[in-house]
Amino acid sequence: MFSVVAIVGPRQCGKSTLVKQLRPDWKYYDLESQDDYQLTFNYYRTIDKSEIDLVIDGRSGPIPIEIKLNSTVNRTALRGLENFLADTKTNYAILINRGKRIELLTDKIIQIPVNYL
User: Fold this and answer.
1) Which one, of 24, 28, 30, lies nearest residue 4 by Cα?
2) Is 12 left (phi over 0), alpha (psi -120 to 50) or beta?
3) pLDDT, position 23
4) Other beta carbons within 10 Å of 55
């Protein structure tokens, strides 16, 4: 199990300086650095060219995660996850959005509102 801490805020407000001073032993990634971004974050493109925002390795295999800004779900938002599930025989997928509750959208796609994270 790995812990992750994300420090967010406006540019040039001292986020990097704070982390480096408080926790010099922590591994630090700057998402504005092309080198760090290429090393740590990837997306997935399905056979039909749909994209998945994030795929993590879970105990039972890969877990595709799609992140949307809206609170409602339409078929287009689910297409990439559905295609990933079909392409890889993965057990389930996660949609993170601004919905109101945790909800099973299909038999294999669960919605988790961002305020639950």
Assistant:
1) 28
2) left
3) 82
4) 17
Q: Which residues contact 73 (CB under 8 A, 6 or more apart)?
A: 95, 97, 99, 105, 111
Torsion of CA 112, 108, 55, 32, to 10 degrees: -30
pLDDT at 46 over 80: no
C-alpha closest to that of 71 among 99, 90, 50? 99
Residue type, 51: E
Q: Check: CB of residue 102 under 8 Å from CB of residue 113.
A: yes
Q: Where are the domains of the chain?
A: 1-41, 42-116
How far apart are the C-alpha atoms of 61 and 74, rounded to whole Å?
A: 26
Structure token digits, residue 52: 């998945």
| pLDDT band at residue 39 under the 50/70/90 scheme | very low
